[in-house]
């Protein structure tokens, strides 16, 4: 601080005000999410208790025999702390070290999935095994102090078969990310390296497409998708599929809806890669495709990972398209939750809906934790270039 | 050494093909569909039903309309050109005009489309300055904070942005629902009963709050990045010239951020115009609806399993006209910049 000019130094009042504002914002940003996470682990009486302390401590939940002792909480916090610490520092380094040059993305996927599996095994498998006997030995220290139950999660995931919605979500999301990136990377590169007027017009039209409400597009698909077997039968005969309710059709739709944003974003990334790099390759006799494959692809991963994150968010968070184009048998998670809060007649149903909501949020939470840097740099790069 | 046109087409071809097939073509089909109505073909048949009676049967003949079926047993449908019929069913011009000419605001708001238009425009225009303002305030405050806490603050700030919109709206709803914790708190504080989901204006307030909460982090991250590149020399010479903190913000920082402010405003305009998830998350359709929700509602099957495709197409076209009108000033600006840069 000593080398800041005197006039740049801030009066105490301003500093205090700015810090207070930040604290308030952080509370505001995290409170709703924190609160539904707390609610989802409580018996309905506790979850909707009038006293906030009752919601947090869960006396009714504890009375029914579900709870954590001080020892449980202590060990749990330690494990969680190291999980976060390793995910932020150790995991990215290992991925960078171990993944071969061009396949950093594959490294990330394998790394993230492996890490998540290891966490689940240790946290939900190993920890209870160790803690059960330990609590019994400790006596009063091992008595539960914090009411906590996973009953609602069991109801959602096992009884209501939410895992099927989860698998559908993964199928749709994975498909959208993979195809979006493949198609978008090629287009983004082409647009970045072509100075022609057509490229400009394509981008402007894409901008207008970006602005279209999705319901406008779905209004175009739905009549066709519902009757597609009939409409396509002159060409495809009896094999003509009914596109309504097909995850593949939804993937194609979401990829297309996402294209305008993807090509804008990837184009700005490719513009940041110096033109001299591929020109040098071209002078050495490469075609554009070879230059792209051997010179650009190895250095484009940061941009691709960021754009992939946004494709992931679009597909994963989508409600409108998936709820209209998929039927009940292959519904994804987000529209499926509408079924919960439409029938939430009892408080137990409500808390189950909360547990389903938290289940949907948890993967996103992990995603930000791992990719915070990429999200920020990606938003920045996209914005600075316009 | 720019790319040859043929190579260019090979690169962008797949993307253009997808956008053509799944964006441009559906637009055309929605446009055409908004002037058509597809209905089942019906015929009137006389059905004589007789019941056994003493001496003579009692027979009654009644005329019924029944759908015509083809050999496979499916309903036969016809598609007719109906001009602006679907549009007038959505817009209800006579009712709307009667309401306007008698200055009856409530009567106008009885018509779904006009109520949706009012809410959508209000929502877009009210959240825009709030998102920009809150985003900028957070960016300035974070820029001011100690280096060590910036990372965690950015992490927490990103949470409202990445959360699934329907879930985000639900999480706010559960705080304010009848026995939610914040409603209980407000009730204790104000010493009266509250029902925040019983009237339109409280729901609208919660929706506005939710949207600002959800998008302000996006504005924050972008403005924060912009703040890192403010020219230190300009700031210092402003200080030497005796500019106050407020002057520096107004004449140095804000102009520097201007392109980013325009960018965030553009994205926010597009996104808030298609407000939809809030209606679902707050189950607000009985009180408040938006334009995109109107189309969604026409598309979703009703109790009899029918979908109102024609009215959905008409309301979709009207929604689209709205966003194009909102974007025209920005598009003209981009066009002028492009022409300016190519000469």
Tell me about this structure.
The complex is a heterodimer of chains A (386) and B (343). In chain A, helix 1 (12-39) packs across helix 18 (347-385), helix 7 (151-159) crosses helix 18 and helix 13 packs across helix 14. The two termini of chain A are 34 Å apart. In chain A, strands 1-2 form a two-stranded antiparallel ribbon. Chain A is built from 18 helices and two strands. The radius of gyration of chain A is 26 Å and the shape is globular. By secondary structure, chain A is an all-alpha fold. Chain A has two domains: 40-149, no CATH class; 162-385, MetI-like fold, CATH 1.10.3720.10. By secondary structure, chain B is mainly α. In chain B, 69% of the residues lie in helices and 9% in strands. Chain B contains 14 helices and four strands. Chain B has helices at residues 5-33, 85-91, 93-101, 105-109, 112-144, 147-162, 165-176, 181-190, 200-227, 232-240, 245-273, 277-281, 291-299, 309-342; strands at residues 36-40, 42-51, 58-67, 77-81. A two-stranded antiparallel ribbon of chain B has the order 1-4. A two-stranded antiparallel sheet of chain B has the order 2-3. In chain B, helix 5 (112-144) runs antiparallel to helix 11 (245-273). Chains A and B meet through helix 1, helix 8, helix 9, helix 10 and helix 12 of A and helix 1, helix 5, helix 6, helix 7 and helix 8 of B.
Task: Please give the number of β-strands of chain A.
Answer: 2
Helix-strand makeup class of chain A: mainly alpha
The CATH architecture designation of the largest domain in chain A is: Orthogonal Bundle
CATH superfamily of the largest domain in chain A: MetI-like
Which word captures the global form of chain A?
Answer: globular
The major β-sheet of chain B equals: 2 strands, antiparallel
Question: Within the largest sheet of chain A, what's the order of strands?
Answer: 1-2
The CATH superfamily of one domain in chain B is identified as MetI-like
Strand content of chain B: 5-15%
Output the helix-strand order of chain B: HEEEEHHHHHHHHHHHHH
Distance between the termini of chain B: 19 Å
DSSP summary, beta strand count of chain B: 4
């Amino acid at each position: 601080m000593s080398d800041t000019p005197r006039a740049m130094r801030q009066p105490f009042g301003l500093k205090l005000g700015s810090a207070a504002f930040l604290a308030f914002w952080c509370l505001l940003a995290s409170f709703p999410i924190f609160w539904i996470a707390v609610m989802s682990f409580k018996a309905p009486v506790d979850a909707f208790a009038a006293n906030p302390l009752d919601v947090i401590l869960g006396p009714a939940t504890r009375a029914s025999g579900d709870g954590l002792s001080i020892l449980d909480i202590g060990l749990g916090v330690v494990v969680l702390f190291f999980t976060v610490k390793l995910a932020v520092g150790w995991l990215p380094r290992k991925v960078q070290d171990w993944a071969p040059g061009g396949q950093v993305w594959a490294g990330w996927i394998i790394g993230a999935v492996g890490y998540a599996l290891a966490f689940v095994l240790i946290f939900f498998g190993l920890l209870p095994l160790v803690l059960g006997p330990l609590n019994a030995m400790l006596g009063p220290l091992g008595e539960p102090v914090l009411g906590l139950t996973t009953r609602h999660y069991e109801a959602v995931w096992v009884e209501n078969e939410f895992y099927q919605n989860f698998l559908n979500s993964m199928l749709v999301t994975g498909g959208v990310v993979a195809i979006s990136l493949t198609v978008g990377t090629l287009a983004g590169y082409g647009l970045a390296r072509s100075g022609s007027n057509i490229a400009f017009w394509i981008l402007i039209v894409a901008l207008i497409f970006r602005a279209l409400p999705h319901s406008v597009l779905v209004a175009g698909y739905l009549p066709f998708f519902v009757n597609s077997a009939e409409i396509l039968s002159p060409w495809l005969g009896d094999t003509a599929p009914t596109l309504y309710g097909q995850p593949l059709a939804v993937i194609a739709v979401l990829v297309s809806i996402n294209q305008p944003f993807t090509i804008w974003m990837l184009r700005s990334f490719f513009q940041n890669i110096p033109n001299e790099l591929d020109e040098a390759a071209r002078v050495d006799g490469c075609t554009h495709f070879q230059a792209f494959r051997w010179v650009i692809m190895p250095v484009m991963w940061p941009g691709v990972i960021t754009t992939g994150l946004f494709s992931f968010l679009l597909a994963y968070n989508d409600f409108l398209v998936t709820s209209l184009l998929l039927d009940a048998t292959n519904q994804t998670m987000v529209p499926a939750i509408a079924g919960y809060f439409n029938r939430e007649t009892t408080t137990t149903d409500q808390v189950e809906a909360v547990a389903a909501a938290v289940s949907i949020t948890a993967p996103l939470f992990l995603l930000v934790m791992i990719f915070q840097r990429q999200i920020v740099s990606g938003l920045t790069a996209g914005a600075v270039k316009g | 050494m720019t790319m040859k046109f043929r190579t260019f087409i090979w690169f962008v071809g797949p993307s253009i093909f997808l956008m053509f097939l799944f964006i441009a073509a559906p637009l055309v089909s929605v446009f055409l569909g908004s002037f058509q109505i597809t209905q089942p073909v019906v015929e009137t048949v006389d059905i004589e039903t007789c019941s056994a009676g003493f001496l003579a049967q009692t027979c009654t003949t009644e005329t019924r309309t029944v759908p015509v079926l083809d050999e496979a047993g499916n309903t036969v449908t016809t598609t007719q050109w109906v001009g602006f019929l679907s549009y007038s069913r959505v817009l209800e011009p006579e009712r709307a005009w009667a309401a306007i000419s008698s200055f009856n605001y409530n009567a106008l708001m009885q018509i779904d489309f006009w109520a949706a238009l009012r809410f959508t425009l209000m929502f877009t225009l009210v959240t825009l300055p709030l998102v920009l303002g809150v985003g900028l305030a957070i960016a300035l405050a974070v820029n001011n904070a100690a280096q060590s806490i910036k990372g965690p603050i950015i992490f927490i700030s990103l949470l409202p942005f990445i959360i699934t919109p329907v879930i985000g709206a639900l999480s706010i709803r559960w705080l304010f629902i009848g026995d939610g914790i914040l409603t209980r708190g407000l009730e204790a504080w104000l010493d009266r009963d509250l029902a925040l989901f019983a009237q339109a204006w409280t729901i609208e307030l919660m929706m506005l709050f939710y949207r600002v909460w959800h998008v302000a982090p996006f504005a924050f991250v972008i403005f924060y990045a912009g703040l890192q590149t403010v020219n230190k020399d300009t700031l210092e010479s402003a200080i030497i010239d005796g500019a106050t903190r407020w002057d520096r913000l107004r004449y140095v920082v804000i102009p520097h951020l201007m392109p980013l402010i325009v960018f965030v405003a553009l994205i926010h305009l597009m996104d808030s115009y298609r407000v939809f998830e809030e209606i679902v998350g707050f189950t607000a359709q009985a009180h408040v609806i938006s334009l995109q929700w109107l189309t969604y509602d026409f598309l979703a099957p009703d109790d009899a399993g029918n979908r109102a495709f024609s009215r959905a197409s008409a309301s979709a076209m009207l929604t689209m006209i709205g966003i194009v009108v909102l974007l025209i000033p920005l598009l003209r600006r981009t066009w002028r910049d492009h022409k300016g840069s190519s000469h």
